[in-house]
Design goal:
Structural class: alpha+beta
CATH superfamily: Jelly Rolls
Order of helices and strands: EHHEEEHEEEEEEEEH
Helix content: 10-25%
Strand order of the largest sheet: 1-10-7-12-5-4
Number of domains: 1
Shape: globular
Strand content: 25-35%
CATH architecture: Sandwich
């Protein structure tokens, strides 16, 4: 798996469980969202793959907290047996447009603590009227794999290597140490994220499912 893999053979997370997770963490998000954060994001623009400009999207990732955490982890370990052989970091990703216009989460690599692979279960796509696409990039003259927290505002300085439209209520494995971005967000984009700390286990899951 070089950039991403749709894990079509993995089961859907039960709706009752998802509703609890989103409710708990959306409360935490709302309390920590500040006007200053929103103003800062509307001031920076992201040049996307077609050369047009989109607003910067507001992004938060929070741990799955409270009593729902062991319930979700128990479901993950039961339904994805390979995860029993790797430590994981489970969270909820929120990405949304501040302005209501098409917005982008800028080209970046993730932090190193969660590993090089993340499993995503998309709950809301982030655009009810069109596709939201994830793109993987390479900077000319540089290695494909980059250090954690590498960031760009202008994707036209990069070479697009792959793109995907991840569907809701499905699993995908993505490579997070390669520069990647998300484009065309007009609404809330919500996903369960599972950082798989063992690269070998992540690759096994991608191959099997």
């Amino acid at each position: 798996m070089q950039y991403f893999k749709f894990l079509n053979q993995l089961p859907a997370i039960p709706l009752e469980l998802l509703n609890q997770i989103v409710y708990v963490d959306s409360n935490n998000i709302d309390k920590s969202t500040t006007v200053a954060n929103k103003q800062q994001l509307t001031q920076h623009k992201v040049i996307v793959s077609d050369g047009s400009t989109q607003d910067g999207a507001l992004y938060y990732r929070t741990p799955v907290t409270g009593p729902i955490n062991p319930i979700l982890n128990e479901w993950l370990y039961k339904n994805i047996n390979e995860l029993n052989n790797s430590s994981i970091t489970t969270g909820v990703q929120y990405c949304t447009s501040v302005t209501g216009f098409a917005s982008a989460f800028l080209p970046h690599t993730d932090g190193g603590a969660r590993g090089k692979y993340t499993m995503l279960y998309l709950i809301k796509s982030g655009n009810p009227n069109g596709p939201v696409t994830t793109h993987w990039w390479q900077q000319p003259g540089e290695d494909l794999v980059r250090p954690p927290h590498t960031v760009f505002l202008d994707s036209t300085t990069l070479v697009e290597m792959a793109r995907a439209e991840i569907q809701t209520n499905t699993w995908a494995m993505i490579k997070t140490d390669i520069i990647h971005s998300v484009q065309n967000i007009t609404d809330s984009r919500i996903a369960i994220s599972v950082g798989v700390h063992s690269n070998a286990i992540a690759e096994l899951i991608a191959e099997k499912y």
